[in-house]
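Two entries, shown back to back:
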Amino acid sequence: MKLSSLGRVGQKEKFEGKYNRYQRYGAEECVLQMGGVLCPTPGCGAGLLPEPGLRRILCEPGNGIGCGSVFCRECKEEFHEGECNSLLSPQGAMAQKGYVVDEHAAMQARWEEASRETIKKTTKPCPNCNIPVEKNGVSVEVPVLPLPCSELELGGDTFIVLTLQFIVADACFSQTAVILLTLLYKHFAMTESNRSSAMHFASKIHDLKKCDADSLQIGKKDGKKAIEMVMLLEWWSGTDCTLYTDPASYHKYGKENAIVILNHNFEIDFLCGWNFCERFGVLGSSKVLAKKELSYMPIIGWMWYFLEIVFCKRKWEEDRKTVVQKLLNLRDYPENFWFLIHCEGTRFTEQKHQISMQVAEAKGLPKLKYHLLPRTKGFAVTVQCLRNVVSAVYDSTLNFRNNENPTLLGVLNGKKYHADLYVRRIPLEDVPEDEQECSTWLHKLYQEKDAFQEEYYRTGTYPAVPTVPPRRPWTLLNWLFWALLLLYPLFKLLINMINSGSSLTLASFAFVIIIASVGVRWMIGVTEINKGSTYGNNDNKQKQK
């Protein structure tokens, strides 16, 4: 049978609308707000973020953008020593002829021309629907077809194909997905009758590696590994999660883009944050500003890499370009997303709290009792890059009843916890645009968070209406499907080993299981407070920003 493509015209218009929105309101506005410049070379117009005060600007080529030209930051002409000649500038040249240049219109025209050239160089029209798709496909020489216009022909291996369809919908976060797709591509490519199926799944291998949400359009179907961990919290340990919030704000959750500020006091606070996202259907499109070291963790780190998580080294000189570029990419994200940021920069400990309060005293800032001094640079940059895209800031404060100290190992052992999450919705219009004013606003916010924490310890509740968002069945169903699919061959292999009677084979299998268990225990150790990052301790003390 064939699955015909639907809504090609509507998708094309949506695609073009996204490009127009990106061209006119996205990168240009944010680059200029960050003190950057646009390359003046005709046909380029790349957004650049040079160091402040740097006059010689290099439009460095990379990723299909950048022309390699060197120009003067002040006059936008070819770089030269000495003062700029006003006759060489657009204003001076035009003034001699009696014309007045509209700088905004000229800049927009250069940017649109550069965007058209970039699209022309890096994409080609789909033969079926004319939507631009990437020219560089996967390692095998097959056309890369977008999901709406690919026609999937099912041959005799219907079960495998249907299984692949499920993998494609969910594979972006499976550690086995790339391997499965690659092997099954080879299987389909062996026969001419399954050639179109092979091409379709080969394109998915490429999309999986890039995890391009614009082309995949999988959005809220994402997050397999996160779903599995949320399943452990919701269904395995049975942890209760009560939400305290304003009823007027409740109905907006999951229906808008938001920046989520969460306190960083517990080993499983990230898991409770995922649970909050899952209850409102945005788990797959949730993003986070995380430390670079986490990207190297097996499975979890790889999943976050495919999720396009924003990683930082917590050194602004090194993060300035990479973090801003990642944030700019979110402006054109096709689904509603939540961007989580721990403004404290590291998990709360008594030692880090003492050092943080010493910095607060030196800067003349009010001391906090239950939080570290927030690091304002990352938050200010996030607000600047996502303004006009994000609707609100969700100020979130997490606590556990009866002074519980939850651990990930406790969740795996099935221990039940009781989490209380207080969320305040603050419209982004209330957050100042100026970086210094934004910094002051964030410090005031954390003083209020400290007061809410004090009230919770005193009364055991928050000043809002408690509610329990309904638990959705998809986490459990997803886990059951993958457990059946992946554990079946494992058990079959184990039975064959037992029947073989080989002691060496059984010993090897037991050794692999032990290594896997040790690896899981090591990954759990990363979340433990006493083994956490030393960032913020005496031997790693840095200037608070």
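entry 2 starts here
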Amino acid sequence: MSLRSEQRLVSTSLPTHGQLTLMFAIVVVLIVVLGATAPLASHPTSGTEGFLSAYAGAVCVIEITTAILLLATFRVQRSIGLLFLSFGYLLSGALLPPWALTFPGIFDVVGSNENLQATAWIAAIRRIGFALAVLGFAVGNPERKAASPRRWMAWSLAAVTACLAASLWIALHKADGLPSLMADERVPAGGWDYVPPTTIALYVLGILLLLRRRHSALDIWMAVVLFSLLGEILLLSYWAEGVRLSVGWWSGRIIGLVAAAIILVVLLAETAGNYVRLAEAAALDLRSRRNRMTAMEALSASIAHEINQPLSSIVTNADAGLRWLKRENPDMAQAAAALSRIVEDGHRAGKVVSGIRTMFLKGVQERAAVDVRRVIDDAVSHCQSESVRPIDIRRVYPAEGIEVNCNALQILQVCINLIENAADGSNGAREADRCLTISVRRREPGEVEIAFADNGPGVPAALSDRVFEPFFSTKTDGMGMGLMFCRSVAEAHGGRLWLSSNQPRGAIFHLTLPAPNSATAVSGRQADD
């Protein structure tokens, strides 16, 4: 899965249970605040004019930032409805500075105090314009995509600029020719009576359309925003009786501030969540690459480790053949036998490489019912003829033959590795005392256990699991791949390989393999298929 597909967009994904709970909580808190504020809504306040500029600046920054994030989402999703929504937030945020600058008694701007209608007309245009933009988002087809996002964004910014310029020109220069919205600096005139009902109707219509569609989490969040703005207009225009700077008026402004911040918080949370998912996906991809590199290193090291045995045998037989040929009376029969052994070792080396490669690939492995005693005998013969560390090997077999379902060459390599490990581990003992006991028994129905018990110094309990890790070795000249290879072969056959302590000293490697037609053998073949 690509990193891009891991991203969640609030405009395309449905809300989670936690988001729905949060939405419900916001609505409940809003209703409680409205109920608590209603009795004191019309009470005037004094000395609160100074907070107006801070309020306007905060809402302006919030709404313009929200518009920018919505435009960024539009670049990704290309849904034209998002463009309408960003248009509304951008226009609403851009109208706040002139609204605050023209507010009576706040700033000494030329003509602002004389024109009581400018502030009210800017507020009316801002509210109705935002509601119309949300309606455009609600009625639009979410699946309609913009062919050229940059061109649409350029036209959108041009439209916002034109609407902003027209709104300010009307409010600042043509307000005297329009119906009066304010009787004085705090009390509205009769013309304002038409603004709240129009705004409320647009808010309610937008809520109904968004809840009916419910295309994404953004639809429901915008319904919550409109519900919050509905509470704000009720406080400002009805419960506060339209009186500016009253308790209800300021309560409505606080609700408006929260409503403006809702989508911004949602988009920031979405962005943070996407960054977290991208970081996790990148970390997972990095781990996957490291695992692949480790697997490649393990494969190459396994090949190098296992191929050393037939190569050493080839070199030994080649030296023997040369010695037979360099004698005064060359022994052609012995030289031919050495060359035959070289050919056999060469074929065995090729099969070793093929067997190791098979373990790292999916597919059918060549397995058959094999008498495990024969495999062990071949491994013992090989080790006794090649080993430079003599060790007494005792074999304990049951009277009847025991067959296992396996790839004979791979299990032969496992047995050779375990025998050579026992020989290396017994270096500390006298040559006469060096002993390895190989026993075979039926462990469970359908399972055969082969135990390799030596009398060397053993393996510390803390290292009993680490000895099977790649590149870990207790020997100074070890590659740390032999036991990893052995366990991989055992598990690929549906068996196991583990280590336990021998008494009174030494270590025991336990190898289990499935018997022919056992459930483990059948499931192993199905997994390969």
